[in-house]
Amino acid sequence: MATKEEPTTLDQTTLDLRKVPLVEPEDGMFEAYANVVNLNWTLHDVRIRFAELTQQVTSDSPGTWKDQEPVMVERVAVTLPWHQAKLLQSMLGDLVRSYEELNGELKQVKLPVVS
Questions:
Q1: Structural domain boundaries of the chain?
Q2: What are phi and psi of 53, to 5 degrees?
Q3: Is a pLDDT exceeding 70 seen at residue 39?
Q4: pTM to 2 decimals?
Q5: 51: Cα within 13 Å, side-chain hemisphere
Q6: 87 to each of 14, 28, 30, 93, how far by Cα in Å?
């Protein structure tokens, strides 16, 4: 009489991600710069929107440096389930704490006004 095999399951609570191979897609990994972050959420997940605050010449101007106006260019959005968002919060908190221990407290930066 044949025995019925139990289905194998992946126990993600004990999975050591440091031992899981990291594979980069053939066409490379997408990277983006952002200096503005915004959040949206639902009952099931959190969406993090990344944008870049930069300067752009308005379409009706002659295109000189003084004709630039600030714009936010949305670069990418990443949606995470709440459990991953909580893990990200912990990881970022630990990272910022370590950075500030070595380099001092991060403070809000100010830009000079140039006339």
A1: 31-102
A2: -80, 120
A3: yes
A4: 0.71
A5: 13
A6: 15, 26, 22, 10
